[in-house]
Design a protein that fits this description.
By secondary structure, this protein is an alpha/beta fold. It contains 13 helices and 7 strands. It has a 5-stranded mixed β-sheet with strand order 5-4-1-6-7, sandwiched between helices. A two-stranded antiparallel sheet has the order 2-3.
Length: 247
């Protein structure tokens, strides 16, 4: 079982992390026709579903305790489900609702104060990418990570305090709804952030400080995070690229 002591083992490295894998995303049209599935996590790449590959890689890090998958019946009935410690039915119609479902399941354990959330549509992740991400995450709420300004993208892996996530569920739902629009995301932070965004003066530290004010908890962007944690499969071109370059 995970506990706070386990989490900081091996010279301060985060260990014994519980993982929540949201797997409710559905696909349709040309992508569903070519892949032969309607659930994104079950897309086949290099002889494995993306879900199966993700679970294998998480185990290969040697740093994961329990892995909880949240998804539809197709997930529970698939052989890949046996690789997870639990497969839960969807908790609602949104991604955050499914994440909360996973958090509820983990509540009855001696889980530590950090849970890794990772999406199930990442064809290029590796054990090293996961470990690099975990090693880059602050291990203390008092630690502040300074980041350079530059080009950033939203990744598909998050290390979170479950209590903070539950406490800020309404905010999380709004972020999830706005995630496809840069302006909509910036609007959530306030009018000054819209002006900074338009004038190209918005920087990561501004966003980090604003999130602390709004959410009442610390947060940090991760500098030089592995690109494998950002390439997901959302359309037919990305699927074909993944098939061509998988290893």
């Amino acid at each position: 079982m995970s506990n706070s002591e386990d989490e900081s083992g091996e010279a301060g490295r985060l260990m014994g992390i519980d993982v929540i894998l949201p797997a409710g995303g559905r696909i349709s049209g040309e992508l569903a026709e070519e892949t032969g599935v309607e659930v994104k996590a079950l897309i086949p790449v290099c002889g494995q579903t993306v879900l199966e590959r993700t679970l294998d890689i998480l185990r290969a890090t040697g740093r994961v305790d329990r892995a909880v998958v949240v998804g539809p019946d197709e997930i529970a009935k698939h052989p890949a489900a046996k690789l997870a410690d639990a497969v839960l039915p969807e908790g609602g119609s949104t991604g955050p609702a499914n994440i909360m479902q996973g958090i509820e399941w983990l509540k009855g354990s001696e889980s530590g104060n950090r849970v890794l959330m990772i999406t199930t549509d990442l064809p290029f992740i590796t054990p090293q990418a996961i470990s690099t991400f975990l090693d880059s995450c602050p291990t203390s709420v008092n630690e502040y990570v300074r980041l350079r300004d530059g080009e950033w993208t939203m990744g598909c892996s998050y290390l979170v305090n479950p209590e903070a996530l539950v406490r800020n569920r309404d905010h999380i739902e709004r972020v999830f709804a706005a995630r496809k629009s840069q302006i909509a995301m910036v609007r959530l932070l306030g009018i000054m952030f819209i002006l900074r965004f338009i004038t190209r003066t918005l920087a990561i530290p501004h966003i980090e400080r604003r999130c602390v004010q709004m959410l009442g908890c610390s947060g940090a962007g991760i500098r030089e995070s592995p690109p494998e944690l950002a390439f997901d499969i959302d359309d037919i071109e990305e699927y074909r690229y993944a098939k061509e370059h998988c290893r």
